[in-house]
Amino acid sequence: MAATPIPWQHWGPLNARIFRHPYHFKVHISGNRVLQALPVGTRNSEFMLHLMDFSPLAVTNRRGLGRVVKEPSTIYISDSTGRSGGSLTTSLPYVQVVFSDRKFDSAESELEDIWIDEDRIYMLMQIWNPRRSVRSGFRKRPIGKLEVH
Asked: Tens of pLDDT along 134-147?
């Protein structure tokens, strides 16, 4: 027996969330959470963390952390030549936490990677040491953790 296809418009918009960001950033996905390190300003030497939790439990029991986003978001689609191909609107609710009070300066270091588990956020930085040769001038060092209860 063949499965009956269900059109996107019947299930997709309410059960998906699509974002488009015009800049380069680090991202890590774990379970229902998405962690991003977003640049602050134009120099890309400072960044802040942005967490999105798509868990239905987080949306209903956010415990005062972050804000629940229920407004739909729309992206505009274009083909490889730049011609408009329409738009796509999605509205899966999520909890958004922006760590705006903790900006991380990377003027003398480079953010190598970020990741998240059930309880913590981890960041791995490469620290610049000018006394070393150009090839080995960076040293990897974890810079700390944030609890995300």
From this structure: 444 444 445 454 55
